[in-house]
Specification:
about 160 residues; mainly alpha; 6 helices; globular
């Protein structure tokens, strides 16, 4: 139950971050990237750590990657925590558009690769194919939106 709550919170904060970032994109690419970094990398990264590392048993079952040892879950959780903490520091300390764009690019590419993994798993496994396919599509859309925001920021005069 707790792992689903964290998962829903992650989707809500990530979605809100994208919504606010897109609403700011035309007027202020720097603000849009800062907002996206705070929510889609910072908040989502830290919540993903909680889900993958602290709630690893439920998370592994939910995503269909159950195993006898949680080391894979911990590794993914620690990577998310690293991105999340650095994103929060960048936002709070005002590192600026270049640092925020770099974080947004790196995290979106990381998630894009996770989406590719889920897509490959959906093709390989019969039992979890629908769940992994949906997860892959959501991950592709999410990381694509993040990449779009980063690309817009790079092409802006603020960069």
């Amino acid at each position: 139950m707790m792992v689903k709550l964290v998962s829903y919170l992650r989707y809500a904060l990530g979605g809100a971050g994208l919504y606010f970032a897109f609403s700011q994109l035309a007027a202020s690419p720097a603000e849009a990237v800062a907002t996206a970094t705070l929510y889609t990398v910072g908040a989502v990264g830290i919540l993903s750590f909680v889900s993958h590392a602290l709630l690893h048993e439920g998370d592994a079952k939910m995503i269909g990657f159950s195993s006898k040892t949680p080391s894979f879950q911990f590794e993914v959780g620690f990577a998310n925590l690293a991105f999340g903490v650095v994103a929060l520091i960048s936002y709070v300390d005002g590192w600026g558009i270049r640092a925020n764009t770099t974080l947004l690019l790196a995290y979106s590419l990381y998630l894009l690769q996770a989406g590719i993994l889920h897509f490959a798993e959906s093709r390989r496994k019969k039992k979890m194919s629908q769940t992994n396919l949906i997860r892959a599509m959501v991950t592709f859309a999410y990381s694509g939106a993040m990449l779009y925001i980063a690309a817009h920021a790079i092409s802006s005069s603020s960069f």
